[in-house]
Every structure is written in structure tokens, then in C-alpha cells.
Design brief:
Layout: H1 12-40, E1 43-45, H2 46-53, H3 57-65, E2 71-73, E3 76-80, H4 81-90
Antiparallel strand pairs: 1-3, 2-3
Length: about 90
């Protein structure tokens, strides 16, 4: 069964204002989601860490050699995001 459709016709100015407001709302929602994920995600998996930093296994091994510790949890390894920041700070030139 076909759903009824609603069509709204806007003036060019109203359309521009509408799209601008929708864009602002989307940007705000994205920013809030990013901030929430930063605050609530203290421990990340090896896969998440590599995606987050856009690094491969060799670079991760280098970070571990520089002091990044991992936490075994079942078959996964977890990394503390606060410790990641400490390792990066120690690498500053």
C-alpha cells in the first residue's frame, strides 16, 4: 500500500533558510555525538585505536615500545585513551 505524501513548496529564500537551519542542527548533533563519544570512551580496542589514529600494526607496536600498555580482556586488547595521550606527550620534540 502506498503511503500518502506531503509536498511543501517554499520560496527560494525560505528554502535557503530552511536548508541552513537543518544544516546547523545537523552540525550541532554531530558535535554533541563526538563530544559524548570522547567523554565516555576511556578504553578502546586495538581495532578502534588503529582506526581512531589511522595507524597500522607497525606503528601500534612502536607506540607499545614507547610505553603504551595494553589490557588483556578475553581475546581483545584494550588501551587506555589517557595513557595514549601521555605517550604522545612524551614523544614531543
Amino acid at each position: 500500500m502506498e503511503q500518502p505524501q506531503l509536498q511543501v513548496i517554499l520560496t527560494p529564500e525560505s528554502q535557503k533558510l530552511f536548508l541552513s537551519n537543518v544544516g546547523k542542527l545537523l552540525d550541532q548533533a554531530i558535535e554533541e555525538a563526538v563530544e559524548k563519544s570522547k567523554l565516555s570512551k576511556r578504553f578502546v580496542t586495538q581495532k578502534e585505536l588503529k582506526e581512531m589514529l589511522q595507524i597500522g600494526a607497525d606503528t601500534l607496536s612502536d607506540l607499545e615500545a614507547r610505553g603504551l600498555r595494553r589490557i588483556p580482556l578475553g581475546r581483545k586488547w584494550l588501551y587506555d585513551t589517557e595513557e595514549i595521550a601521555e605517550v604522545f606527550n612524551s614523544m614531543k620534540i
